Amino acid sequence: MLVLGHVLPVLAKRLPSPDPAPILNGQWKGPLKVPGGTLDLIITLVPLTNGTYYAALDAPQQRISRMPAEVVLKGNDITLNIEQAGSRFIGKVKNGGAQLEGTWTQPGLSVPLTLMRAVSATATASKKPRLTPPYREEEIMFTNAVAKIRLAGTLTIPAGPGPFPAVALLSDSGPQDRDAEQQEYRMFGMLADHLTRRGIAVLRFDDRGVGKSQGNYLTATTADLMGDAQAAMTFLRARNLVDPQHIGLIGHGEGANVALLAAAQPEPAAPAFVVSLAGYGLPGRDVLVRQQVEILRLIGANPAQVKAALDFHQHMIDIIRQTPNDNQARGKVAAYLRLNNTDLDPQMARARAAQLTSPWSRYFLDFDPVVLLPNVKCPVLALNGTADLQVDPAQNLGVLKKGLHNSQVKSDKLVGVNHWFQPEAKDWPLINGTQQPTFSPKALDIVREWIFDNTKRPQATPTTVNKAASQPAKKTPKKPTKSAQASR
To answer: What is the pLDDT of residues 270-286, one digit of tens each?
Structure first.
């Protein structure tokens, strides 16, 4: 049985070679033969603007998503390593990147594995004539002046005269594109479409180093990402048709904590409201330990295996937190990794150690959301799913509510909804004979209505857009609503 570990962003190296492989971007799928059947594996590779890759592994049958992986590419040779599972894939990039062919090795198992490039939902949709949506849609760029980087995104504004309430969407950990796309699911694309059709402007953007955005995600801390969120709100405040008094943030996972961190800042930089989708209430190090326990339980590990894995994980965290010098910490971590996995390549051990001691990782391990939550004054909607293996609502939602005692908080646990806010698979819509993942309709309704309760519902939302309506309208100063006044 494949063993999967915690979620941390991982760097993949692209080494120079006289015979360079094509740039790999997308997902590769294939069946792994294990005793008693097969497991579908999905490898995601995202090229970053600094010449490296973000890599992740999915195992849908085990309900594991975006588990970090390390990749070394040299020409057409590819090595994928999942150090905590003691698993490795060594193979070749073939047919211009159409397939990855090699051998998968894990304790007690070594089998051939072929991964074929998957056609994403976006790629499939791009081949079909796209109907004009019933709202304005614009490719935009905005600047984070502090970080001196430009971020690219999509702004969608409802049809009609406005001004409209607006939100910026903030993604979970790991560099993601503006749609937060994974496999056949465009989480942010679906959320933006739903809200914009019903009268809420939405800005979604590529994370640092992804797509058309500048910067390096792997060196950014949660606080740095808050700067990107503030820059997004600054951009929205300057736009015609957007109500500057009703600009909020919707964050998912770590993005929810980024949004709450922004809300804890002094006005007028803070958002008017925050929607937390699977936000963390526990310190980062406790979140990682919790994820490890849930994954081990899911795959049927016995108590001794759970204890050994947690002891390993806790010792790793202690090494990092007790060794402030990065070079010393990396040496200790790499040595500890190889001590516990003698088959681990020294180069990969060093790469993993560098990631575990990165600015993001150090910040996340020490980050405790509760410390700043009392500074949040704006209304907050906190939603978590009962099927979420990464952010357990029982352990996180109550902590968030208690910490947000100075703001108006509405919270809800959505039965059967997972970390990506998908309902149970039986409730997915049937498209072309196949069930397709979708954003929970109940969650969409709750988010939309709550935003209108804390802003102002448009008098009417036309279903079509004409040229006259697409012209910018003059902003009319609006008197804050009662809930907005109460949040100040």
So the answer is: 999 999 999 999 998 88
